[in-house]
Specification:
Layout: E1 13-18, E2 22-25, E3 29-36, H1 37-44, E4 47-58, E5 66-72, E6 75-83, E7 86-90, E8 95-98, E9 103-107, E10 112-118, H2 120-125, E11 127-137, E12 148-152, E13 159-161, E14 167-173, E15 175-176, E16 179-180, E17 189-196, E18 202-205, E19 211-223, E20 234-238, E21 244-260, E22 268-270, E23 273-275, H3 278-289
Antiparallel strand pairs: 1-20, 2-3, 3-4, 4-11, 5-10, 6-9, 6-11, 7-8, 7-10, 9-12, 13-14, 14-17, 15-16, 17-21, 18-21, 19-20, 19-21, 22-23
Bound molecules: manganese (II) ion.
Length: 297
């Protein structure tokens, strides 16, 4: 996954995306959808969708806040917690509770039924809640493979310091500066959790030809030569050509860098299913209704 072009060429910022408004997923996740495959599926392949939940303050409760039993097929859901706790349980036996810094990488593939709730202890305590859920597509050959669940603790994720006190890169998947992240992926993906503190110009090198997006959660990032800075809850989408992100200024930034080899296959989705054809979507609905994706114990 090294850049195929050894000569540095600036990657141009194409467009900046932002949510047109928020909505609730169940009663636990106040979400802004920062991009979705309905319009960005081809440009951002293999990334399908990104929901940003919070930051929000939840009062203490004994209720279970979240979203009950629902299916997925054909892709992966990657949940990254910044604040609060998320509890998950699925029909393939995967499950667990993740907190700040932890990542849950769930491969739905042929199909799971799962539930997603606030962690019980967090709910009773209340407090700040902030998380991201990213949907990652699978190539057609892997869409019907068995489900898989990777629970990745904060302590397993390597942190690489950027030069000159510019901040740090947490390598969730792929690699940065030769340091590999723990997540197993089906296609080549780099997923970096960035903390940028410096305010001086610096560069991030990525592979030529990959879909690349900078998801800014806090602060703002200005790219060299760009008229507009990428603000909090906005996504900068880069052109495929070039292999260097030239960052002019980034102050007190939390951001995710998504970078992946495009899967150039048709995307047909409906609700919790993302497949390649309409017939496969009909099959997914029928398989879910007839219980072939399993049930929660
Ligand atoms: Mn789900």
């Amino acid at each position: 996954m090294e850049p195929s072009n050894p000569h540095p060429a600036a990657k141009k910022l194409g467009r900046i995306l932002r949510s047109s408004g928020g909505h609730w997923v169940g009663d636990g996740f106040p979400v802004q959808t920062l991009f979705a495959y309905s319009d960005m599926g081809a440009a951002l392949s293999p990334f399908l969708l990104l929901d940003y939940a919070g930051p929000a303050e939840f009062p203490p409760t004994h209720e279970r806040l979240g979203v009950g039993e629902h299916p997925h097929r054909g892709f992966e859901t990657v949940t990254i917690v910044y604040d609060g706790e998320v509890e998950h349980r699925d029909s393939s036996g995967g499950g667990g509770r993740i907190g700040p810094g932890d990542v849950q990488w769930m491969t739905a593939a042929s199909g799971v039924v799962h539930e997603e709730f606030h962690g019980r202890d967090f709910a009773q305590r209340g407090g700040p809640f902030e998380m991201v859920q990213l949907w990652v597509n699978l190539p057609a050959r892997d869409k019907m493979s068995p489900p898989r669940y990777q629970s990745i603790a904060d302590s397993q994720i390597p942190v690489v310091a950027l030069p000159d006190g510019q901040g740090s890169v947490r390598v969730i998947a792929g690699e940065y500066a030769g340091v590999k992240g723990p997540a197993l992926t089906f296609t080549p993906i780099h997923l970096w959790d960035l903390k940028l503190t410096g305010g001086q110009p610096f560069e991030l090198v990525v592979p030529e030809g990959y879909s690349t997006a900078l998801v800014v959660l806090k602060g703002s990032v200005r790219l060299q030569g760009a008229d507009t800075a990428i603000q909090a809850a906005e996504v900068g989408v880069f052109e495929r050509t070039g292999n260097v992100l030239r960052i002019e200024r980034a102050d007190k930034v939390t951001a995710l860098l998504l970078c992946g080899e495009p899967i150039d296959e048709p995307i047909v989705g409906s609700g919790p299913f993302v497949m390649n054809t309409a017939e496969e979507i009909r099959q997914a609905m029928s398989d879910y209704q007839s219980g072939k994706m399993g049930h929660l114990a």
